[in-house]
Design brief:
Blueprint: H1 12-17, H2 21-28, E1 71-85, E2 94-105, E3 113-115, H3 119-127, E4 140-145, E5 156-162, H4 173-181, E6 185-190, E7 197-199, E8 205-207, H5 216-238, H6 254-257, E9 258-268, H7 270-281, E10 285-291, E11 308-312, H8 322-329, E12 335-340, H9 351-357, H10 359-362, H11 366-373, H12 378-397, E13 415-417
Parallel strand pairs: 1-4, 5-6, 5-9, 9-10, 10-11, 11-12
Antiparallel strand pairs: 1-2, 2-6, 3-4, 7-8, 12-13
Helix pairs in contact: 4-12, 5-7
Amino acid sequence: MKHARRRPRSRMRERIAGTTGALAVVLGAGIGQAAAAGKTTSPHTAKTAPLGTPDAAPGGLTLPAPTGRYSVGMVNLHLRDAKRTDPWTPDSRPRELMVSLWYPATQTAGHPAAPWLESAAATHFLTSRGVSPNAVTLPTTAGHIGAPVDPKAGKLPVLLYSTGLHSDRATGTALAQDLASRGYLVVTLDDTHDDGEVQFPGGRLEVNTMPPGTHASHTIAVRAADTRFVIDQLAAIARGHNPDVEHAPLPHGLSHAVNMNRIGMFGASLGGAVVPEAMHVDRRIHAGANLDGQFFGPAKTRDLDRPFLLFSSQNHNRNTDGSWSTFWKHLKGERFDLKLRGSEHLSFMDYEALWPQMAGPLGLSPTQLIQMFGTIAPDRAIEIQRTYLAAFFDKELRHQHSPLLDGPSRHFPELTFVR
């Protein structure tokens, strides 16, 4: 089948409006301002592969298991920034956030595995996409709630994750839990009233209230401020404090494990555009990675002197996106531009694994799945992302060289170095 001609990003909303209802709904999650995200391009022949364990419950969705040497722990934190008001509400309430911490864990028996989304958020996530909560069961993650930090992992480099516009921090779980299994402390952020649904302790649910037409640069600036605040809270944890609003217990060993001298950040879609802005706002972030997100705002035209990874889908890189080309010229530290052949924009979030499993309830045809995720098998796409993200952050934060970053590998022929 011939490749469909790539449409300009400025017309993306028009194209989404012309799709079938179910496709328009699922593509709406993660779409960036001025179509920064959801690119639906060249249809191909589908090559999907089953994910997860073979004994999954009927209707139950799965994510691929982590590949690192450590078991994974997870804890949710409720944070409140008394110095800022929420920019997306009219009542001047303090800015509140929910984040998840993923880390190497020990003694996981007796610590239940965390759900991908908690109950109220999960119900909203499904019903907003026209799916009955009784039709599917969202995944159980590999993260054991509150399990002690494994002391054998030593000091943990920190990685922060920013998701796509109106998505959830959960959409980075496949990557976050794998990086945690490799010895990182990964912090996934929900940006309240920007993300689709955020559940707070007690079951309180906050949904997207961002005004229509909000400029991407404003959204990015808010998220960068959120990120800096979260890093401040990690520093408080490292000093032995507990910043959780309800003072919920922190995992044993966490305060001694946080390495505030080795911090990186990655983001998908609009979240990828947040990364350089956050790096300019906070120099404690030593390395960044953008997973297929178009750049907006002043960050793309300001010199950045720290390592950066661009990781794109098959039809998107600095040769097709002017914002990437401009940004590339302003990178003064070590830089990489990788392209994943056979992938599409949504391949860089958990939708890659989940949507093929719930195509029936979503009403998605094989052709629509190909438009959204390309031809690469979901488990293979996730494996390659995990491998190269780990290689990049191992190099920049742990000073462990990987030959994978030297050039093309016969083990990963789908991965192209853009020159």
